[in-house]
Amino acid sequence: IAIAVWFVAKGYLETRVNTPYNVEKLVTTSGLDIPDRYWGTYRSGVYFGLKTRDPHSLVTGLMWYFPRSLRYDGNGFRHWCDQGDKLNRYAWLEHDGRTFGVQEIVDNSVVIKTTFVKRPGGYHGGDWTARIAVLPEKEYDKGEEVSLLFYTAIEESTRGWIKANLGDYNRLTGIEGNTKGLGSFIINLNLINGTIEEHSFLATVASGLNVLKETVLQNLRIATEKGSMEKHVVLAGEQLLLLSDGKKEDPNFVVTQVTGRAPFEIEVSYESGSFSNRIDKLTGKNYDEALEKQRQLFSTKFESVFKLKSKGYTDDEITFAKMAFSNLVGSIGYFYGTSQVQSTYTQEPVPYWKAPLYTAVPSRSFFPRGFLWDEGFHGLLISIWDTEIELDIISHWFDLMNVEGWIPREMILGQEALAKVPEEFVTQINTNANPPTFFLTLDFILQHKEHELLKHNFQLLDKLYPRLQTWFSWFNVTQIGDLPGTYRWRGRDETTNRELNPKTLTSGLDDYPRASHPNVIERHVDLRCWIAFAARVMAKLAETLNYSTNKYEETSQYLSDNNLLNKLHWSSNTQMYSDYGLHTDKVILRKSALPPHKQRSHTQSLEMLRVVLEDPSLKYVDTTFGYVSLFPFILQIIDPDSPQLGKVLQDLRDPDLLWTKYGLRSLAKTSPLYMKFNTEHDPPYWRGPIWINLNYLTVRAAYHYSNVKGLYRENARKIYEELRKNLIQNIIKQYKKTGYLWEHYDDSDGKGKGSHPFTGWTSLVVLLMAEIY
Ligand code: 6A9
Question: 369 C-alpha to center of ligand 1: Å?
Answer without folding.
Answer: 10
